[in-house]
Structures are given as C-alpha cells and as structure tokens.
Design brief:
Blueprint: H1 12-19, H2 26-32, E1 39-43, H3 49-62, E2 71-75, H4 78-97, E3 130-133, H5 134-145, E4 156-157, H6 160-173, H7 185-201, H8 206-222, H9 235-264, E5 266-267, H10 269-282, H11 284-293, E6 296-299, H12 307-317, E7 323-327, H13 341-345, H14 347-350, E8 353-354, E9 360-361, E10 364-368, E11 370-371, H15 376-391, E12 403-404, E13 412-420, H16 421-443, E14 449-453, H17 459-469, E15 473-475, H18 478-481, H19 485-498, H20 503-511, H21 519-539, H22 545-550, H23 566-571, H24 588-605, H25 612-622, H26 625-630, H27 639-651, H28 654-659, H29 665-678, E16 696-700, E17 709-714, H30 759-764, H31 771-775, H32 782-802, E18 805-816, H33 828-839, E19 844-848, H34 859-862, E20 865-867, E21 879-881, E22 894-895, H35 904-916, H36 919-927, H37 940-956, H38 959-962, E23 967-968, E24 972-974, H39 975-983, H40 985-993, H41 1002-1018, H42 1044-1052, E25 1062-1071, E26 1074-1086, E27 1099-1106, H43 1113-1134, E28 1141-1147, E29 1152-1155, H44 1162-1173, E30 1183-1184
Length: about 1200
C-alpha cells in the first residue's frame, strides 16, 4: 500500500535538469519515483545503481516525502558507503544551491504537471542522510541496546587478526577430544574460524551443530550395512562417519571459542551481527525506534548479505516499511562466507508490502539493465554466459539481460584455443601488449590491463610469460601473492618455524637454490624422520622428538609411520657418522649444509615473539631474499615482497604494533591458508586498488569484483579449471563447513537425502551413486546436485569476470594443460561464446587449434627434461630436452635457453677485486668503466654490486669515517630522500656511504598508528573490507600515543566525509635519470566524468597526513618537494595535466592545512638534482660529496 500523502511535485527528469546531471533512463525513473513501500531492484553490473539510489533520495526529499536525516543507506565497504554518502549528500547540496524548495509541510502540494524548474525556491538546512556499512550499523545497534540481551557495554570488538590469534591460543591449549581431527594446526585454526563464522551468519549455536551431527551418525550406524548383511562397512562409510565426527569435534572447539571470547569480554564481527539480529527479534521497541528515525531504508549489494543480516533488517524494517534492496543475483559469488543468490530472491516475501486491505503481498521488483561500463560485444558475451542463470530465477522473479548504453562502442571479444597452456600464456601477454599499444594510439591515453584467473595455480606460467616479455606486472590479492616464488619462500620458512608437521614446506627450502640438498641426502633425512616417528609411536603419545633422538631402534620398513616429520629430523640431526637402517649416510657437504640450516631455523624460531612485520623482515634478510630481489633489474623488483609485508602489517593489530607486542604467527599462517584455500575474498583487493596503466594486474576472478579495466584477459577456460570441477561438500573431509540443512538459506541449496534403509545407500547418497544405482533409476545423489549448484556459481563468477572489461575481452583455453597426459575439454562458457561468434559475430575467433592440430600427445608431457640438480643458484639450472628415442644419451639432448643471465662470473670477479686488489685502485677501477668493462656492457646488477663494493672499500681505507669521498646516487630514491637531497645533500651523502638504521621514536609510532586509523576508516588496508565496523579502528591504538585529539579534529574536518579516489597509492617516476618512489596518503577527486576512472578534466588533490610540528618558510618549501614529486608521478601515471593536480600537507596534531602553491615541475625537480649532485647532463654520473 503506497504511503503517498500528496502527489509528487517534480519528476526525476526535472530534477536531473536542475542538478545538471544526465537524464535518467525509463527504468531508473521508475525506480526513483516508486512509492514508499518495499521494493527489490535487480541492478546488473555497471548499471548505475549508486547514482539511481542517490537520485531516489533526492527525489523523495525534493517532493517533501522525507527529510534527508530520515534516510538510511547501508552497504558493505567503507569506500562504497562513502561514495553513496557523497552522491546523496552532494546532490542534496546541489538541490539547495539550485534554489529548489525542500518542503517540510506539503499540505498544499503543487501538481506534477505544473512544476517548472525555473521557478524552484530555496529553503535552508536540508540536513544529511545517514550512510553506513552493514557491520557499522550492527555495531551501533549492539552498543546502544546490547545490555537488553546481556551484552556488557564495555565488550570490546576485536578484528579478524585478533580473532584468529584467540582461536590459535584456544586450539593450542584445548584439552577436549581431537582424535578425529587429523589436519595441520593452521588448518585446524582456519576450520574453527570458518565454522564459527558460519554459525554466526546463520544464527546456529555450535551445540546445535554437535547435536545435529551426532543424530546423523547415530542414524547411519543404526542401519544395516545392506539389505542382506546387517554388519559390515566400507571405506566410503568409514570415511563419511569419520568426517562427520571430525565436524562434531570442530563444533566443540567453536563452543569453546565462543566461551573464551565471552570470558575475555570481547566479540568478533560474527558475534556482532548475531547479537544485532537477536536484538531486532527480541526487543520490539528497538525496531519501532529505528522505523521512527528512518522513514526510508536503502540496502545495497543485497546479494552479498548473510542470513543473519537478513534477519536483522527484517526484524527492524520488515513489516511494510519502505525498504529498497538493491543487488544482482548474477554477482552473488561470496557463498563461502554465507551469502547466496537465493537470499536475494526471497527479499520480496521477507519484506512484504501491505495492501490496501491490510494483507501482505510480495514487494515490487524492478530492474536496471542499461550497462554503462561495457562495450556492445563485451556485454553480449556476459549476457550469453549468464543466460542459463536467467532461466533458473527463483520465487517467480524474472531476470533480464543487460542492455547497452547509448554511448557504447562496439568493442571486441576474442576467443582463442591454443595447443598448450605455455603457448596460451605467452600469447595472452603478447595480445595485451599489442592491444595496449593500439589503445594508446587511438585514445591518446595508456590502457589499464588485467589478467583474471580462476585459480592461483595459473599465476606462475603467466608470471613467467610476463617476465620473458619484459612486461611490468602486479599480483593483486593475497591468494595470488602466495604463488609468487619469493613470497612462497618466505611463507615456507614461517611455516617451518611455527609448525613441526609442515615437512612439505621444509622440502621446498631443502631443494631450493640456496641449500640445494641432493636426492641422496634427502633420502637419508627422510629415513631419519621415519625412524624417529617409529620410536615415538613405540614410546607413546607423550614422547617427544628429543626422547626419540636419544633412543632410536631399528624396526622393519612395514612399521614406518606416514607422519614422519622432516622438520624434527633436521632439528635432531645426527652426527656425520650416523648410518640408517638401509646403510645410507649423509654426505659431508650435505651434513654441513643441513647443520647450517638447522642453526638458522633455530635462531629464527627464537624470534617468533617479534611483531609480525619485524619477524618477516628478519626472515627475508636471513635467507638472503632482500639481496636476491635487489639484484633484479626494474623499479618494481620488491613490489610483491612489499605487498606481502603490507598484508602482514594489516593483519597485525595496530595497538600491538605500536606497543611492540608480537602477533601469533600460527594465527597469521592460518589466515594465509584460508586465503589460499578459497582464492576468493580474503584478499587485499577492492577499495584500496587503483587500476594501473604502467603494469598488467594479475588477480583471481573473485578478487576482481568491483573493479574494471580497459583490457581484460581471462585465460584457462577449460573444464576442471573454469568452471572448476571441485565439488565442495559439507560432508567431505575438509573442516569448518556448517551442515547445509542448518543454513538459513537451506531452501535454495541442495540437500543430502538421508532417508535410506541401508548404511551403504545412506553413505553413497552423500556423494555419487554407483553405475548400478544410476541404472536402477535412483534420484540424483547429493554430490551431483551440489555439482549442478556449483556450476551456477561458476557462471556467476564468469559473468563478474567478463563484465570487468570496458572495450576488449580476451577469452582463451588450451588443448593441453600443464604436463597432463590427457587433453582438456573446452569450458562450456567458451563453447557458448564460440557459437555466438558463429551466429552473430559479437565475438571473433583468433587462434583456434583443432584437436588434430594440437598433436596426439602433450608435448610437455611427452618431452622429458633433465637438469643437473642441485644447480648453481647464480647461474640457474642447465636444462636440456632429452631425445625421446635415446633419453640416456645426453649428447643428443637439446639445451633449453636459460631464462636469466648467469651471474657466477660477475660475482666471482667482484669477490676477487675485493680480496686481492689494492683498495684505492679497486675503488677507482670500480667507479669508472674501462676498456674491459665498458659502461654500456654492465648489467644493473653489476653496477649495483660495484657501488656496494665501493662502500666497503671506502670504509676499509677510512674514507667513510671522514665522509669526504664522493658517493654516487643509487638508481632510485624515495620521495623523502629526494627532499633530504635538496635540503641537506651532505647528510644524505653520509647516509648513503654508511647506511644506519634510525632509532625508533614515539613520534614515528604515533604517525604510523594515525595513518593506520585513517586507512582503516577508508577501508584501504582492511583484509575483508565488508567486515570492518566504523569504529573498529578505535580499539587498535595505544592510548599512550595520544591519538584522540587528532582523531577528533579529523572527524570534524572537511576530510571526514570525503571519499578518496585512492589511499596509500604507490607511485614512481623518473627525474634526471633517478627513479623517485613514494606512497601518497590520499588522493581526492572533484568533478569530471564519473564514468572515466582517471578523467584528465577532473580536479585532483593529493594529501599527506602529518602528525608532527607545522613547518614554515623555507622548511615548508623544501618539504613541499615531496608533494611535487607525487604530483609529477600522479600526472604521468594517469595522464592528468599538472595544472589539474593540487597538493597539501594536513597537520592533524595542530588542525592545520598547508596547501603548497607553486609546486616544482619536472624541469625544476631536475635542476635541483643537478645542483645537488653536480650532474651536468642526464645520464652523466650523479654524485654527492
């Protein structure tokens, strides 16, 4: 029943004319001017839902139906909340500026047809709408009303990192029965967090889970094995019962976890929503007060809400209140955290409208189908892959395809089917390069480019192809970073020093290029591990590795246990004379290397109490990663290590980092394992990511949601990869899944039919039927139902990936994948688009390899390669392809070209200079090129090594102590170092000659903590941005840092409600041959075309937050050079004119802004460099004295 009190005064079209915006489409107009009653808006990807919601609020306010402060908007991320608030409140301000009357008493309405935009009058004080995140709203509700359900007002909200650490401590000290849990410790902690989150999101107590699982097991065991055999079992039956019992034990751990949180007086994000839903259901007065306060409610991204969030808002606003839910079921890809497309379809019945006779009827459903982002052909491809989803709409709700905007260009969708995945990776990179050049030539601006993968396992081949082509790239998302070799090395060391069961990670270390333990020594170490395990088994469960090490006895091979720990074998390494039962012994060199490795790991294991970032940096230095990465050419060599450090920094609670306390390493590793397992939302992608024009961005399809690029490639479209063939059953062996029949959205999920007369059928029904069952016409088994359900999930993911592209979409797969001996099958998605190409021309065929042309066997499976192992890490492996007819004859083998330049000769030459040459002569010879070593023949690594050798020689001759020798500038400087160069070049020279760490300071800790708080407000560093309440950061800071005054000033400043276009934006640019790098704290945008991400016509403001004293005069002018570097870098990165970029320092401790006018341009910055160094021309040596 409509609640109109009078006819509308203005149409959406009239308001658009007044406000100077684009006129709404008919669909948008219908949504904007809908009656004040519940409504579901199905908004396709890029259909302008945020603008439409803002326009609806403006229309309601302008027509006198609500006041601005009677509007509540709720969305997931802080960035999205900020954008929605800025849209709504910005348009309301324009409403007043335009002279439009905002009536507060509409007793005398003006008929719609009489409204004239030229006659609009002004009334001051329109107020502001309230916009929040889902968790922030729940946080406010619990804070205000928690005592009514027994929640203490001083209960502290803990972040995800702290929750993981609490779970890790609980698992470590738990005394209950864990005999059914056989996973690693980090997997156990991840399982606790997963099941605890599911229980909270679906409002199920862990005790209910335990009782439910016990009943299932009891029922299964009560059945006869078969109709003819009462007793008996099978591997399948035993595995299922073991899995169910493991899940029940996990439920006990979750119950203990909840008890631990209650005793500590803390709650996590899951508890927060659970308590808020409880308040909404149990305290009617709270709902009445909220409905009185907010006359209109907008729920954004409704397809991502959980059951608990549905119950919360239904309890508060579900009785005919004007709730507008906006979402897209085709973008529901976060089922792993409790969301489902089925929940969106239930909205009309969960939030019914009231008819004129007081009856309840389903809420109205409206659509937004005009896609403003995508080109015509990209849109056609997305519609094609989503077509089956439109046929499966639930609750009778129609799903419509997306349509093009009036401004859409044709664009291109190209389909490629390559002979093998290596060829595919290289071709994808080459295609993006060519398309980028074409885009620059046609548009005059560089293109943003991305490669979206279904699985992180696809990353290494693509990274190799990017490296080989010399294309800069950036891996986004935590699961993607874990595939980067240097990050994987770091994680392996962390796993080994944290968990003695992770022999898999030790094996990576042992066989890597640093230690190069050979096969023979590995075999001996494994034998040692097995003997220790056998002895532990004999001594009983309470025996230790040390007990075993001093009392080993020979046993038969049949008694060897499978759980042998290489880590314990290394930790209790025997003497060089030890001989195993097989008669083998360690080589002298192998024993020496293992001894050194053991010493190194033992040292690192004593440092795990350090804060996480410090520990990781220590590991990086200890294993030589910092040197190895520094030796790589290119300005972005450390990009991925730095991104991993950022992830660790974000995980560590700021209060602990500020106070110098450590972070539980096991909790961090559990979080990493969860990210790697899901390859989905646990990532550093979203609100803090800016599409780059200077690098190809590599990320998973899950992590791409909410982002967009000009050119997008989606490789690996083969059966088993995209769509994935993994069937995720809650009855399976993995820990942490809530039984699906306990989920709040169970009506939209397949269920395991347990009503069978025999135990074997009962167990088989949980998976797949045998061929015999299928022939007898048994109904679909649970596994088959789940597989069909997950195919729909994969379609949604493909739809999300395809709609990230603006103009070019490259879709590809390959006949042979990796080293598989069986050929792949084309993805159904690729086949459907192949048909589209044949019938409409909306897609084009590029390379299309027919099966007969790909060969009968996989060339990479058939091809046998050999290499000397272990190999020289400085030269890399010497790989050869063996002759298939005579593999034993290495003279017939074909060498494979090395992927990197050998470095052994250069390192040995440098070592010889240091050890044998006269120091002064050596320094002189290193400083200048010679006939034997011309300058243009030096590699960047050799030049850097020569410079560092020069430092050593300076010290040995006393030059360093006197600080009088010239020092050459490195190839790169930070922006702050450039400021030092301009202000005090002599001091910078001393620091370059003898780099010294700076002592920790309270001011630095204060600055770090304040930056962390600001970043958290904008969601730039949140690991799961949709789980950060507005005030969560308040718990993360040390009171001794005295941040409260700075925070109070910030919240009252003009910056508090502005949404930055970028936060902690990494930039680099070259000035006078020197690469300058830095991170811009915040970038704000004003004006321009909102559909153009980096519109050169917009105004851009760069902001640097400062917590120290306010400088003046020449000091401020010199420090302003930092902003000048940032401005030049931002201009070059995004093609924005310098005159459209301003920059300011904001001194929050003093409430002062200092806008630096007359910022230095490119020539002035180069001149400063030349004056400080005496550099005559670019390219000539730049030295400080």
């Amino acid at each position: 029943m409509s609640t109109w009190t009078h006819a509308p005064r203005y149409t959406p079209e009239q308001l658009a004319q007044v406000l100077g915006g684009n006129p709404p489409t008919p669909e948008q107009s219908e949504v904007i001017s809908s009656a004040l009653e519940p409504m579901l808006v199905i908004a396709g990807a890029g259909s302008g839902k945020t603008a439409t919601m803002a326009d609806r609020v403006v229309w309601l306010v302008a027509n006198g139906y609500v006041q601005p402060d009677e509007v509540l908007g709720v969305t997931f991320t802080r960035k999205a909340a900020g954008e929605l608030a800025e849209r709504i409140n910005g348009k309301l301000e324009k409403l007043a500026e335009a002279g439009l009357e905002i009536p507060r008493d509409a007793a005398e309405p003006t008929p719609e047809q009489d409204a004239d935009p030229d006659d609009l009058l002004l009334e001051d004080g329109p107020g502001r709408a309230s916009v929040s995140t889902y968790h922030s709203y729940a946080n406010t509700l619990v804070r205000d009303h928690g005592m009514r359900i027994g929640i203490e007002p001083d209960a502290e909200l803990i972040g995800e990192a702290q929750a993981y650490q609490l779970a890790a401590r609980l698992a470590r000290s738990y005394e209950g029965d864990l005999s059914f849990l056989t996973s690693s410790f980090s997997t156990l902690v991840s399982g606790i967090m997963r099941l605890a989150g599911d229980c909270a999101e679906h409002l199920v107590a862990p005790e209910q889970v335990r009782e439910h699982l016990d009943r299932i097991v009891e029922h299964g065991l009560s059945l006869p094995y078969t109709e003819k055999k009462v007793e008996g079992t099978s591997k399948e039956v035993d595995a299922l019962i073991s899995s169910l019992r493991a899940r029940a034990a996990m439920a006990d751990l979750v119950a203990a976890f909840q008890q631990a949180k209650a005793e500590a007086g803390v709650m996590d994000y899951g508890d927060l929503v659970r308590h808020a839903a409880d308040i909404a259901q149990r305290i009617p007065a709270v709902g009445a007060a909220e409905r009185s306060r907010f006359k209109v409610v907008l729920l954004d991204e409704f397809q991502d809400t959980s059951h608990a969030q549905m119950v919360l808002f239904r309890g508060l606003y579900g009785n005919g209140h004007p709730v507008t839910a906006v979402g897209d079921p085709n973008q529901s890809i976060y089922g792993f955290r409790g969301a489902s497309a089925g929940q969106l379809f239930s909205m009309p019945t969960q939030f019914p409208r009231l008819t004129s006779d007081g009856e309840r009827a389903p809420a109205a459903v409206r659509h937004l189908t005009v896609a403003w982002r995508n080109s015509l052909n990209v849109l056609q491809a997305a519609n094609t892959v989503a077509a089956p989803l439109r046929q499966t709409g639930q609750e009778g709700i129609e799903l419509k395809p997306l349509g093009p905007s009036p401004f859409a260009v044709d664009g291109e969708v190209r389909l490629d089917w390559y002979p093998d995945s290596v060829t595919e990776a290289r071709a994808v990179v080459a295609s993006l390069q060519a398309a980028g050049r074409a885009h620059l030539a046609e548009q005059g601006t560089p293109a943003t480019r991305a490669i979206l993968c279904r699985q992180g396992s696809q990353f290494p081949a693509l990274m190799d192809a990017l490296d080989d082509a010399g294309v800069p790239y950036e891996v986004l998302g935590l699961s993607g970073l874990l595939a980067v070799p240097e990050v994987a090395d770091l994680v392996s060391v962390l796993q080994v020093i944290a968990d003695p069961t992770r022999s898999d990670h030790l094996l990576r270390i042992l066989t890597g290029p640093r230690w190069r333990i050979g096969p023979a020594d590995l075999t001996v170490l494994a034998e040692r591990a097995r003997e220790m395990t056998r002895r532990q088994t004999r001594n009983g469960p309470n025996s230790t590795a040390a007990d075993t090490a001093v009392d080993l006895q020979d046993t038969s091979p049949e008694e060897e246990a499978e759980s042998a720990s290489l880590i314990e074998a290394l930790d209790f390494l025997p003497g060089p004379e030890w001989t195993g039962r097989s008669g083998r012994t360690l080589s002298a060199e192998g024993h020496s290397r293992l001894t050194h490795l053991r010493r190194e790991l033992r040292m690192l294991s004593t440092q795990t109490s350090l804060d996480l970032v410090t520990l990781i940096r220590l590991v990086e230095r200890t294993i030589g990663l910092d040197v190895e990465v520094a030796a790589r050419p290119g300005a972005a060599a450390r990009r991925h290590l730095d991104a991993f450090l950022d992830a660790a920094d974000d995980f560590s609670p700021a209060q602990e980092a500020a106070a110098g306390h450590g972070t539980d390493l096991a909790a961090f590793l559990s979080w990493l394992e969860s990210a790697e397992e899901h390859e989905k939302g646990l990532s550093l992608v979203g609100s803090g990511v800016v599409p780059r024009t200077d690098a190809v961005q590599l990320l998973t399809a899950h992590a791409s949601k909410g982002l967009e690029w000009d050119l997008v490639a989606v490789p690996g479209l083969v059966v088993g990869q995209f769509p994935s063939s993994t069937v995720d059953l809650w009855t399976g062996p993995s820990s942490g899944h809530l039984p699906w029949d306990l989920r709040g959205d169970r009506e939209s999920l397949p269920q395991w039919d347990r009503d069978w007369s025999t135990r074997r059928d009962w167990a088989d029904a949980a998976k797949s039927w045998t061929l015999k069952h299928q022939k007898e016409g048994y109904p679909d088994a649970y596994r088959d139902l789940v597989a069909a359900h997950q195919l729909s999930e994969e379609r949604r993911l493909a739809y999300v990936a395809f709609t990230r592209a603006r103009t070019l979409l490259l879709l590809s797969g390959s006949h042979w994948r990796g080293e598989n001996s069986k050929p792949t099958q084309r993805s159904a998605f690729l086949d459907e688009l192949h048909e589209l190409a044949q019938t409409t021309g909306a897609a084009t065929l590029g390379v299309w390899t027919e099966p007969e042309d790909a060969g009968e066997t996989n060339p990479f499976a058939k091809r046998s390669t050999a290499a000397i192992w272990p190999f020289d890490p400085l030269n890399g492996p010497e790989v050869v392809v063996l002759d298939p007819e005579h593999p034993e004859d290495l003279t017939l083998a074909t060498p494979v070209p090395p992927r990197s330049r050998p470095r052994r000769a250069a390192v040995e030459t440098a070592a010889a200079w240091v050890s044998t040459a006269d120091p002064l002569d050596a320094a002189s010879s290193l400083a200048a090129p010679s006939a034997d070593r011309p300058d243009d023949g030096r590699s960047p690594q050799e030049a850097e090594l020569a410079r560092q050798v020069g430092w050593v020689l300076d010290r040995s001759t006393g030059v360093g102590q006197e600080d009088t020798g010239a020092v050459e500038l490195p190839s790169h400087l930070s922006a702050s170092a450039y400021v030092d160069l301009a202000g005090d070049p002599a001091a910078l020279a001393r620091q370059l000659r003898r780099p010294m760490p700076r002592p920790p300071a309270q001011a630095a800790r204060r600055g770090t903590a304040f930056h962390a708080w600001v970043e958290d407000r904008f969601g730039a560093t949140a690991m799961l941005d949709f789980e950060d309440p507005q005030d969560a950061a308040d718990h993360w800071v040390d009171d001794s840092l005295d941040l409260a005054p700075m925070k109070d000033w910030f919240l009252g400043s003009r910056w508090a409600d502005r949404v930055p276009a970028a936060v902690e934006a990494a930039v680099e640019t070259t000035v006078g041959g020197i690469t300058l790098r830095g991170r811009i704290d915040a970038v704000y945008r004003t004006g321009g075309d909102p559909k153009v991400p980096f519109d050169p016509e917009a105004q851009w403001e760069l902001v640097d937050w400062k917590t120290g004293a306010v400088p003046s005069g020449q000091t401020l002018e010199i420090r302003g050079l930092q902003l000048a570097v940032y401005r030049l870098a931002w201009s070059r990165l995004h093609g924005i004119p310098l005159e459209n970029i301003s920059a300011s320092f904001v001194y929050v401790a003093h409430g002062t802004e200092k806008t630096v006018h007359h910022l230095a341009g490119e020539e002035a910055l180069e001149q400063i460099l030349r004056q400080a160094t005496g550099q005559e021309t670019e390219g000539s040596p730049a030295r400080l004295h």
